[in-house]
Amino acid sequence: MxxxxxxxxxxxxxxxxxxxxxxxxxTGNRRRALALIGDRYHNSDYIRVALNQVFDxxxxxxxxxxxxxxxxxxxxxxxxxFLCLRDGMIWPKGYLGPDAxxxxxxxxxxxxxxxxxxxxxxxxxxxxxxxxxxxxEGNGFYSLHNNSHVSLSSxxxxxxxxxxxxxxxxxxxxxxxxxxSSHPITQGIQDFMVNDEQHYVEYDKDRKHILLExxxxxxLTFDKHGTKSIAGWAYDYxxxxxVFTSVGHTIHALWTPEYVKLQKRAIRWLLKEI
Length: 274
Known about the structure:
- About 25% of the residues lie in helices and about 25% in strands.
- The chain is of the alpha/beta class.
- It has 2 domains: about 10-90 and about 125-270, Class I glutamine amidotransferase (GATase) domain (Rossmann fold, 3-Layer(aba) Sandwich), CATH 3.40.50.880; about 90-120, no CATH class.
- A 9-stranded mixed β-sheet has the order 2-1-3-6-13-12-11-8-9, with helices on both faces. Strands 4-5 form a two-stranded antiparallel ribbon. Strands 7-10 form a two-stranded antiparallel ribbon.
- α5 runs parallel beside α6.
- The chain starts with 7 loop residues before the first helix and ends with a helix.
């Protein structure tokens, strides 16, 4: 797998649009997935490496990109699955330091030469509509970890994704409980522990679609939201499907064995293989 923009040949190959999904299933050819990954706080390299293991053995061709403009109708028509692990912000004027937790700028002689970092939301209305059409027409959308932050900037994106970001405490251990073990994604999946950011989200859909709940078993809370948070859901959307799972700030969390199995099953469910 490489991080690249789809080529003109890729675009032409996808001219049949989402109808190609059925042809792929019938012919046994590999399905295609596009992953939009990486932001200021989530290095794309650890996500790439983590997804290597998740997609291993699934017989799916995976393209990865850090370019938000690749979320478009013309690009999505080449794929049957869109995965996103990134937030809704870009930083046009840059920032000092690799992330929010390192005060890299301290001690610089010319600190005043650099503007204060100011983010802007990258999602455009037409991109949200493109995602909605993509899923409605029968394809899959896997929203991971901080991708719920994108929903803060778009009602359309939020309607597809199913909820929106509230916030999270610092890295600390918590347990992920399977609350619906009869769903195809969670069948055979056991509860598991991770050391990760416990993301708190607002969930907008029917609660019967909730699959996972995170709990800080040490009794630590976040703000006024208690020790527990919704950590995953799955539902049909039009002729397509949507999955959200909140774990994913670190590679060791993404590679927790039970979570790897769950992610693999989520991808297969999104592609209607289980």
